[in-house]
Design a protein that fits this description.
The protein is of the alpha/beta class and 402 residues long. It contains 16 helices and 7 strands. It has a 7-stranded mixed sheet with strand order 2-1-3-4-5-6-7, covered by helices on one side. It is globular.
Length: 402
């Protein structure tokens, strides 16, 4: 009986190494999508884990989740907004978010089993422009996309096939593609400051608020920030129009919330008086007209906070300082409770049919007052009827303000 040939030890070692590499790559890639999304999208993952931790600490308290951009991330400080009883605000704003990323965040939250008692959605006309250099698609780092974001990519990305191909490539070699993410989260001092990716989550507090500035800007610093911001927003407002894609994303957020019985309020966050003066009349009219259309279509209230914060506390025209966040958040908490966002009711009222099909059902929480706007004085006043309707790893490569 002849002995069966055996592989040399060196060959067995090579095969074992290759198998280990394959297992590690597949395990890491699958794990980032299913078990620890904090690695693939640290900003989202950290906000999600902290939201779930706050919910566990406050059983029975309804949570009002704020979705928005860096403006909301810097503005809403839940520890200043929340009261000892009643609903609790949580800041789930993602840096760079416009309507598309707000929709992505809501879809992810629902996928991850988080159904807010209410949602406050940031509304800001500059982020409703989606043409050319202002396209939100260009601000979304493709490395942070999860497998269940594929439908969102197909629905909203012009270059969806290229983006899906990038997502597949990233998953084939996850250790290399995510090396900076892993190092920025584990041993950030090994990464040079210009390559670290921990900016979007480094200064998050347990309630999702991001400490915006190390110190309150001086008058000279504030003037310089306004000067630089104006250069960008002059371009945004030149030929301004609400883009179809942005309008569709906002409507999908509102329709999805209606289908799930989640009350929504739209919030136009503080701007400095200098910034408000930059709006050309036509651009401002377009932004306000679309807001009225949304209010009429979905029966949602609008929190108009544009004048809530003193000018010196708005650092660059649209981002609040720490003192500005305190001033805004105390007022926001009062208005959140005034509108009854997240408050339980004996019976939930049925909702009108959704434009996406199906009939929305109440979720057991009070609906905010419809057809109204919270003005700069804090009074709830009726809105006029709207006019007829018209038809590789570079997360820091963002265009324009965040």
């Amino acid at each position: 009986m002849t002995a069966r040939p055996r592989f040399p030890a060196s060959r067995r070692a090579v095969l074992a190494f290759v198998a280990a590499v394959v297992v590690l790559n597949v395990g890491f890639s699958v794990g980032m999508d299913r078990l620890f999304p904090t690695v693939r999208d640290p900003e989202y993952g950290r906000r999600l884990s902290r939201l779930q931790a706050r919910q566990a600490e406050n059983p029975g308290r309804p949570f009002v989740v704020a979705l928005g951009s860096s403006r909301a991330a810097f503005a809403l400080k839940p520890t200043a907004a929340n009261a000892e009883t009643g609903p609790l605000a949580y800041n789930f704003a993602l840096l760079g978010s416009g309507p598309m990323m707000q929709l992505m965040a809501l879809r992810r939250l629902l996928y991850d089993g988080v159904t807010p008692a209410a949602v406050v959605l940031e509304y800001w006309p500059p982020f409703l422009r989606e043409d050319g250099q202002f396209a939100e698609e260009a601000r979304i780092d493709k490395h942070r996309l999860l497998t269940h974001d594929a439908a969102f990519v197909r629905d909203y990305f012009d270059l969806h096939e290229h983006t899906l191909a990038t997502m597949r490539q990233v998953r084939q070699n996850p250790w290399f593609e995510h090396r900076l993410r892993v190092l920025s989260q584990t041993i950030p001092n090994w990464v040079t400051p210009d390559r670290r990716l921990d900016g979007p989550w480094q200064r998050l507090d347990p309630w999702g608020w991001m400490n915006s500035f190390e110190a309150e800007p001086t008058a000279a610093e504030r003037a310089e920030r306004h000067r630089m911001a104006k250069q960008y927003f002059d371009q945004v407002f030149d030929g301004y129009a609400v883009h179809e894609k942005a309008a569709r994303a906002v409507r999908e957020v509102l329709a999805l919330c209606r289908e799930r019985g989640i009350p929504v309020a739209l919030a136009w966050l503080p701007e400095s008086s200098e910034f408000r003066a930059w709006y050309p009349p036509d651009a401002l009219a377009k932004g306000e007209r679309f807001l009225k259309e949304l209010r009429a279509e979905y029966g949602v209230p609008v929190i108009d906070a544009r004048r809530w914060v003193d000018d010196p506390l708005v650092a660059d025209g649209f981002h609040l300082t720490r003192a500005g966040a305190d001033q805004f958040s105390r007022r926001f908490g009062d208005e959140m409770r005034k509108l009854g966002l997240g408050e339980p009711t004996p019976q939930a009222a049925p909702l009108s049919p959704s434009p996406l099909g199906g009939e929305g059902r109440g979720g057991g929480w009070a609906r905010p007052t419809a057809n109204a706007m919270l003005t700069a004085t804090g009074q709830v006043t009726p809105l006029p009827n709207p006019p007829p309707q018209g038809g590789r790893e570079q997360s820091q490569e963002r265009r324009g303000p965040r």
